[in-house]
Amino acid sequence: MTDNSLNDKIRAWLDADNPDPAAGADLLLSLSGNKIRHRNLIRRGAGALAFIRAELARYLEFRLRKMTREQVADLSVKAEKAMTDANRPRGKRPDHDSLPDEIRALFEQNLDILHRMRETHRQLRALSLDDAPCPDSEIYPFVTDLIRLDKLRLANWARYDSWTPEQTD
Hints:
mainly alpha; 7 helices; 0% strand
């Protein structure tokens, strides 16, 4: 269950004209329980303000969506499936070199997307260690990013694979 008073405190801190970095770090500590990060943020003071603001905004968005543990687990399964599918080798079309630049660029974009997916997945695996489980709010941005990247990758493949010379403008 989401604590709405904590949501209100987060929102108030984010809306403040001159927020206190220590208070923001305390809010992050109450959300994640990460004492090492808390100490580092306190030590950095105002230098950590942008980071604290971004993290609190991310937590607030997640909390307002009221994602349940089961929903995050379902998203995690989708993200893992996306990674399995993404790691299947795909080749260039036999006519790749004769395709228009914008269609050939889709192939190159997918290589970049696959690299970003692998990096995001690596970060997600690092968070999800069995001996140090992290809260759903930590996992959620990674699994949603993987799913978003996979949709873009699949759309690029569909456009690349289905392009015909008749589609030339």
